[in-house]
Amino acid sequence: MSNIEAFIKAIELQSHNSAKVVKSVFKNFNEDIIDFDITKFEQFILNLKPNSPRDITTICYILRMYAKWLFVNNIVSTNELYDTINSIDEKILWQAAKPNAKKKYISYAEYQNLLYCISHHEELNTLYFSALFRCIYEGVYNNNLSVIKNLRASDINNNILTLHDDNGDSYKLTVSNQLAQDLKELSLKNTLERANRFGVFEVDAQGLYTDSVFKTEYRNRESKAKDSYKHHPYYTKIREKSMEYIGSNLSPSNFYVSGMMYRIKHELVKNNISLESAFADNNRNSLVHSIISKELNRCHSTMSVSSFRERVKGHLDVFDDEKFDNLSDDLFLDILDVHIESKETHNSMFPEEPLQQDYPNKFDDIESIEKGLLDSGLEGKEQELIIKSRVNQSKFRQQLLDRYKKCCLCSASNPDLLIASHIRPWCESEPNQKLDIENGFLLCPNHDKLFDSGLISFENDGKIMISDKLSEADREAFGINENMVIDLTDANKGYLKHHRQKRFKNG
User: Fold this and answer.
1) Which of 48, 80, 100 is the last residue of a domain?
2) Which residue has better confidence, 376 or 427?
3) How many domains does the chain have?
4) Does the pLDDT value for residue 392 go beyond 60?
5) Which of 159, 435, 444, 448 fits as disulfide partner to 419, beta carbons 3.0 to 4.6 Å?
6) pLDDT digits over 71-90, tens only?
7) DSSP letters of 204-266?
């Protein structure tokens, strides 16, 4: 039995869980470290590909435990090995490890872009996925996601949610008005969209309650809905969609912490406190502690302030590029004047968002795109493909601006508000169709949302088609009527045929 095997066995006698961590450090390591110098130790740690400073701290702690065990058992005669490990500069080592570390968190700009991609490129269950990501980012989270599973329409009062976990604990959380509206709309849906080689179809979905928000596909009609929920796919879907649209396999907790950090950063900026200063090891500022504590309490988090600080340590640069200086104060609700008194107290610090934003406007040139990808975790050809794609999308939008000058349905002409709307969705288009100017209209946010949702379409003569799912009140509110006509090219008509057949909702 090797020294390392004997050490692991000794740890197992004390704690099985600790032994698992120790085994992961020495996995696939066939030589001893007795003769290691500091350079070899550092390389050993880097080869383990740590994803955070905390990982490096844990590895160094285990190595020190092993060195101490060797000395206590008279395998080595001095504490020289322990002292060598203790002299490792963990901060410098993290800077060397960071380029190869997995992405853990996202900036607010990346979060916005994720929502845009889901809205415009996700073919199935768009509202479901958008609401799911927004819930977690805005603070609807616990370790087993039961607060999401248990969420129902009757728990939504304006923009205040009453959340319930499986342990019977309840608390209130204020979210954005848009999310609250989306959750209510989602609770009314009793089907999920699926696709096969024959096309898109709907399957029955059911939750714990008739008004459950996040329902699951009801595969076993003999079982109860509660049992069906044991295999709810949203945890896996979050990872799948984050890999698809962000390029990293982020967990729900990663999105949850990213959202908290965004709101904490906003409060720090309001108080002229830099992120670096606030999270410095020697910072004992009571205001900083209060800001972090209030956000943790707002989200009903079980993390302590010190644990939260340790968790984001080494990843602050992801949030340090957030730009708050140009945001108007009325986008935010002031939380510093709100005091959390109990678990039943709710708080809000999440910015309200406009109905629709043309997020790709943030990528108007190659330099800004490259800057946005610095923390994406993508390299080489992957970054090059994304840069080219976003540059081309910007060109597509500019071509539509040059052609139409204003919304194709109304007089809105502010370029910052106009959206390059695909007739045949990006995800359903062939490569030569994705950036074809004939596959696009220039629309204002309201009309883009109606068109993208399939609530309006157009005949070959350009006359508007209005879904019977849109009430008279909504038609008036969105400024549409049956007399509206849009100018079409012959090429537009080919794309519109697909839109009428696949996207338009009627009957």
Assistant:
1) 100
2) 427
3) 3
4) no
5) 448
6) 888 898 888 999 999 899 88
7) EEE-SSTTBSS-EE---TTS-HHHHGGG--HHHHHHHHHHHHTSS---HHHHHHHHHHHHHHH
